[in-house]
Amino acid sequence: MINQEIAHILNNISEYLAMEDIEFKPRAYEKAAVNIEALNESVFDIYKSGGIKALEEIPAVGYGIAKKIEEYIKTGKIKEYEQLKKKTPVDLEKLTSVHGIGPKSILRFYKELGVKNIEDLEKAAKDKKIRQLEGFGFKSEENILMALKFFKNSSSRFPLGYVLYDLRNIEQRIKKLSGVKNTLLSGSVRRMKEDVGDADMLVAVSSKKDAKKIMDYFIHMSEVAHIYNKGETKSSVKLKNYINFDIRVVDENSFGAASQYFTGSKDHNIELRKIAIKKGLKLNEYGIFQIKNQKSKIKNSAKAEEEIYNKLGLKWIEPELRENKGEIQAALRQAQGKPDGLPKLIGYNDLRGDLQMHSKWSDGMNTIEEMANEALKTGKEYILITDHFRPIFSNKLNSQTVVKQWQEIDKLNSKFKIQNSKFRILKGCEVDIMDNGELYLEDEILKKFDVVCASIHSNFKMQKGKMTERIIKAMKNPNVDIICHPTGRLIGARPAYKLDIEKIVQTAKETGTILEINAYFNRLDLKDDYIRMAKNAGVKLAISSDAHSISHFQYLELGIAQARRGWAEKKDIINAWPIDKMLKTLK
DNA sequence: GCCGTTTTCGGCCCGACTGTTTTCAGTCG
Q1: Which of A284, A335, A339, A356 is the most exposed place for a label (fewest CB within 10 A)?
Q2: Which CATH class is domain A160-335?
Q3: Residue A413 pLDDT > 90, yes or no?
Q4: Which nucleotides along chain B are within 7 A of a protein C-beta?
Q5: What is the pLDDT of residues A519-550, one digit of tens each?
Q6: Which residues on adjacent β-strands are paired with residue A182?
Q7: What's the CATH number of domain A353-585, 3.90.1150.10, 3.40.50.40, 3.30.420.40, 3.20.20.140?
Q8: Interatomic CA–C1' length for residue A334 and nucleotide B13, angstroms
């Protein structure tokens, strides 16, 4: 939690400095906050291990911010921040999350109207006070009231799987409009980030007239709840599912450059532009330009993204990697023919099987046969049935009745054989790891499954050391092949349990236990950084749907995306392998 | 405040849209 607290304070300091029109510092604090929030280790532990020097190892953290972190660890406060708060005592976090309101406006509202929080802001707007301020008017006031209406009933980020399919539906309709040359869902959606704050779509056209037609269509779609702004090339709306959706219409000759630009991430793009500057080039959403002098620019707009990367001396980079986490350096090494280039990411069609799903035997909606047929339809070669045994999930399945489930599976497998199909159903279970690390089923039974998955479904709030030991004990059991959703987090709903993830990864390596990438849209557990950590440690992973119905198989795509964001290759993912090789790898 | 294949000092990514202005500041991504 201390990382979040410090990131929060640094973000607020950034806003306070921006209020005062101070240059560059706000961005410095903001960058530090982002990096601290993304750390896997607590700053407290980092400080304990190496003091100020160790803190300065964090990217974007220098001596100044390291000193402030030290001050927070020692005293629980940062003096400079306390002074800033005292000087302008406003609820920064909430006020800045109102669309269209930034630090400059907040400062003026505070100074001139005494606005300290959302309630004050709403009152000021309703009392027609905003329009009296110089530089503001009736429209600004109306926009604030509208933004507040949405602010109240929307959460800021959504799991990707919650919005992805709606967005694709809209994209497909726009693709079919006349005059549309190309479309692309860009931004964090294209990077397949596990959660998205807003969505971006790019449309290529060849005439202004077509651009206008598309804009008209976009803002009048039935999904639109509110229009933030509309222009000739750029518009922004809120959809009824509460996500903000931006559209950008560009000339088809700039589509490549625009795809690159709008895919981001912001930090990835900033790095690229720095490289461009060093090469005497200028990169923006319209292309990559030669700068001969300040006034004469030779347009050299890029049709394909690849051109841009190549002109910068880099290999093209997969969207899922574009987070400025070393991919640019890797792309440079690869372009120069050096080792340690970009990973050859697992592909979206590379999964041969699925290693976690539930049937009507426990809490699933479909029969084993229905699950098998659906998997077969989507091109899989094998599935593993992993029903629960504990009575809270199922009162049908126990160590006696499981024999019947196995008979059912045998029968189905014979049927596939007769049909000359190589498809195979494997016998498995998702067994609970109890508080003391023992498993819910006895080893005598566990031995008989083809594959045993183990996971935690109870007592999430154990201490870090105890929770780590609990899982490690399960991994040491020679019958346990896979640990499912290893951290237990639910995106936007429940944090991961306290866990020494490095120890878990290390033990997985030592015991030959597979770690799962659970593909269910609000789990995606392991997350990208942990996947990369596991891969680097030589731990093998499985991407599993955890399907409770045939419609859930579609989420495998999200699991693959997460694996790609963790730099995983085919050789890291056991269910991308043929069944025999996969089974041989298991304990 | 951070950072270094040009640097320990002097840079710091870039453009669209809005609302209020008659040329621009603020916000967003």
Answers
A1: A339
A2: alpha beta
A3: yes
A4: 1-3, 6, 11-21, 25-29
A5: 999 999 999 999 999 999 999 999 999 999 99
A6: A204
A7: 3.20.20.140
A8: 25
Residues 152-211 of A with CB under 7 A from strand B: 187, 198, 200
Tokens representing A368? 């084993």
Q: Please give the model's pTM, rounded to 2 decimal places.
A: 0.82
Task: Determine contact, residues A437/A469, Cβ cutoff 8 Å.
Answer: yes
CA A61 to chain centroid, in Å, comes to: 24
Tokens of A172: 């497909």
- At the second CATH level, the architecture of A2-152 is Orthogonal Bundle (1.10)
Q: How far is the CA of A292 from the C1' of B4 (A)?
A: 25
Q: Round to a whole number and report the distance in Å from the CA of A125 to the C1' of B21.
A: 21
Residue A112, token pair as written in the block: 């001139």
Q: How far is the CA of A105 from the C1' of B28 (A)?
A: 14
Contact between the CB of A131 and strand B at under 7 Å: yes
Question: Nearest 5 degrees, angle CA A450-CA A454-CA A456?
Answer: 160
| CA-angle at A147, arms to A142 and A150, nearest 5° | 135
User: Could you tell me the distance in Å between the CA of residue A193 and the C1' of nucleotide B2?
Assistant: 27
Q: Is strand B within 7 Å of residue A578 (CB)?
A: no
A104, closest nucleotide (Cα–C1'): B26
* A510 CB inside 7 Å of strand B: no
Averaged pLDDT score across all residues of chain A: 91
User: What does the DSSP assignment read for A196-255?
Assistant: ESEEEEEEEESSHHHHHHHHHHHHT-TTEEEEEEE-SSEEEEEETTS-EEEEEEEEGGGH
HEC sequence for A117-185? CHHHHHHHHHCCCHHHCCCCCHHHHHHHHHHHHHHHCCCCCEEHHHHHHHHHHHHHHHHCCCCCCEEEE
Residue A22: nearest nucleotide (C-alpha to C1') = B1
Q: What percent of chain A has pLDDT over 70?
A: 97
Question: How many other CB atoms are found less than 10 A from the CB of residue A179?
Answer: 15
Domain extents for chain A? 2-152, 160-335, 353-585
**Cα-trace Rg, chain A:** 27
Residue with tokens 């009392």: A127
**Chain A residues 83-122, Cβ below 7 A from strand B:** 96, 98-106
Task: Name the closest nucleotide to A230, judged by C1' and CA.
Answer: B17
* Residue A148: CB less than 7 A from any atom in strand B: no
User: What is the nearest nucleotide to A235, using C1' and CA?
Assistant: B17
Cα(A582)–Cα(A467) distance, rounded to whole angstroms? 29
